[in-house]
Amino acid sequence: MEERDWRKTKLSLERPYKDDQGERIPVLLDITPDGERVFESPENPTKLLGENLRRIFFERGVDFFERQDSLPSGVAQSLEAADQPSEDEENALDPAKTVLTSEELLSLRMECIPRLFIALGEMTEARDLLSLLLSSAPLRHPSAASSLPPLALTATVATKPPPIPSVEVFNAQLALGGKDEALRKAANVFKQAAANLEKSRQSSENYWADALKIRKANWGLVPAPLPLGAPTGKGADKTSKDFFVSFGLEEFPKKSGCPYGNVRC
To answer: Membrane-crossing residues (predicted)?
Structure first.
């Protein structure tokens, strides 16, 4: 059975670097506000190789390739030295005779160079300070009595310029407007308080007028007990401020224990 064509299709997971015409796809870095696209400049392989070689010589040393060529012989010598007595092993493990590797030399250099730069900066500042102190001339002390030339200081009378009429009128209107607004707010507060007092006075008059009408109609009035939380100690005012209306039914039994023979509400 032949394999189907779509099964032969292969998709590469590698990032595409060429278009359909075989041209290199540039890497887009940014798009300016004008709509212009900024692409990554192509790298020169020769220049990149030169920079890599320069880094190798700078970080690993000038004799890096010579030491790389001598590695196989060094490995063979180390295998032969494994059969030697323990004294050679002790000499090989001696820190004084151990040769530092390129990585150790690089880490040591990266650790020492910042400290050397700090020391160089401090010494430069100290040198500049000493040169400044040595080159500066001694200060001359001012004379005790300094004499001023005659008529060096004069006094003149300056008059305040008159205010601008429009600005003065605007400031007066602003002040009067603020005072008028404050007075109106205070008047509204007093007006509302007076209305509340009048309303409470009328309700109180109507309340006691209704009480007199109830009493005139021969309804029983009973003093109301003091409200909850009212002072009941010695010397406290225990006068009742309200009353209850007592009423009863003709068929109501009198053995209910009520002192008035009726029901209070």
So the answer is: none
